[in-house]
Amino acid sequence: MKKVISFLLMAVLALLILTRVKMNVNNPDFLDVHLLKIESYIEKGESIDPEVSKVNVAWHLYHSLLTIKQIYIALEKSDPDQFNSSVSVLRTLSLTGNYIPRGRAQSPTSVRPPDDLTKQDVQDLLEITKNLASQFKSLDEGSYFDHPYFGHLDRSHAMRFLQVHTNHHLKIVKDILQQ
Fold it and tell me: What pTM was computed for the model?
C-alpha cells in the first residue's frame, strides 16, 4: 500500500513539474506561431466541412482571436486579491497534454463570432489581437480570469490555455481544409 501511495505521489509531482515546464510562457511572443497560422487561413474563411464542424473556417479563426482578446480584458480587469487558487486534474491534463476534446462544450456567448462575419472582420481582430498578445507579460502575475470548467486561471495558466485553445481550433481548421 505504501508503494502505491508513493508511486501516486511521485506521478502527481511529475505531472505538476511537467505542467510548469510546458507552461513556459515567459516569452512575450507566446502566441506568434498561432497568430501566423490564423493569418494564413483567413483567405480560406468560407471553407466548411459539416462532417468536421458545423461552422466555417472564419468562425474558428474569429472565435480564437476573440477568446484571446476577452481573456486579456478579463485579466486586465481582475483583482489579484480575489484570485482563488485550486487544483484541477482536468486543467492539468488539458494544459499539459495540449488537448481540448471536440464537441464537449459550447463557447460562451461573449466569444462567439457574429453571424455576418467577413474576412475583414477576422483581419481587423487579428491586428488587435497581435497587439494584445505582446502585452500579456506586462499584466500582474496574479491577474486571473474565471474559466467555466477550469476555475480561476492566473496569468500564466491563462496564457497556456490560450495556446492550447488556439491550437485546438487550428486543428479543426486544418481538418476542415483536409491539409
Answer: 0.87
